[in-house]
């Protein structure tokens, strides 16, 4: 598809998003509505007219190009190590990142946290540069990450989260209705261990689905929830002291 066609297609979507009609465009360009429809159907907008329509939407042509590229960009499922480090090195940026991934708007963030509007917009612009979001006119946020987006295994952000889990997550009695702690011990074959891991993976997907389903609810009806799923070979003597007999000598 030629780039001009893609650009006009994106422009039509933006007009609809901003509740602008061909009548509005016709008034802006001082043309008849029929002429505007013909220009759009033939993808025959001059640069000058394109600039005027963009101005009608409160944006520049460069913003339109950015929007077009974002529409055709492949959603990212994982950041690079360097990108994660950028976020992990700034805890305020990390907080905004996590909130945005949970579908918070910039108004939600400023209403809940001690951030000014300018601070939040600066953090959102940073996430825009990392292609995690697209910062749209009116400071609307469009997520660009794939549905299976995750932090890098053993990456900067995962290491930071694990450190917080060690020092803070288990500082609770897990006695509230919204909390639950279960510790299981048993002896599993390799096959059973693999089966259980698949069940854990499915459980994680179920959690993610519920989180996405609840994304449309008001912020006041949602609570930040963290689930830790883990299994490892961990012999009982590690709990009760080393009592295992040494292997028989040859």
TrEMBL record:
Against InterPro entries, the record matches this protein to: Cro/C1-type_HTH, Lambda_DNA-bd_dom_sf
Recorded source organism is Thiothrix lacustris
UniProt xrefs under Pfam families: HTH_26
Superkingdom of the source species = Bacteria
Q: Which GO terms describe its molecular function?
A: DNA binding
Give every HTH cro/C1-type domain span.
11-64
Query: What's the protein here called?
Result: Transcriptional regulator
């Amino acid at each position: 598809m030629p780039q001009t066609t893609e650009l006009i297609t994106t422009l039509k979507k933006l007009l609809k998003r901003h509740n602008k009609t061909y009548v509005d465009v016709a008034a802006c360009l001082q043309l008849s509505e029929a002429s505007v429809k013909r220009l759009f159907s033939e993808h025959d907008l001059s640069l000058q007219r394109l600039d005027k329509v963009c101005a009608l939407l409160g944006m520049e042509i460069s913003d339109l190009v950015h929007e077009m590229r974002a529409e055709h960009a492949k959603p990212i499922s994982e950041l690079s190590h360097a990108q994660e480090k950028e976020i992990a090195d700034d805890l305020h940026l990390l907080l905004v990142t996590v909130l945005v991934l949970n579908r918070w708007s910039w108004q939600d963030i400023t209403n809940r946290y001690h951030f000014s509007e300018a601070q939040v917009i600066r953090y959102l612009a940073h996430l825009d540069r990392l292609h995690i979001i697209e910062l749209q006119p009116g400071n609307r946020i469009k997520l660009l990450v794939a549905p299976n987006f995750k932090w890098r295994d053993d990456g900067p952000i995962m290491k930071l989260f694990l450190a917080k889990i060690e020092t803070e997550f288990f500082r609770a009695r897990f006695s509230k209705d919204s909390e639950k702690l279960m510790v299981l011990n048993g002896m599993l074959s390799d096959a059973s261990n693999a089966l259980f891991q698949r069940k854990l993976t499915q459980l994680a997907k179920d959690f993610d689905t519920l989180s996405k389903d609840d994304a449309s609810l008001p912020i006041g009806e949602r609570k930040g929830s963290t689930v830790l799923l883990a299994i490892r070979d961990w012999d009982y003597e590690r709990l009760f002291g080393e009592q295992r007999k040494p292997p028989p000598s040859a």
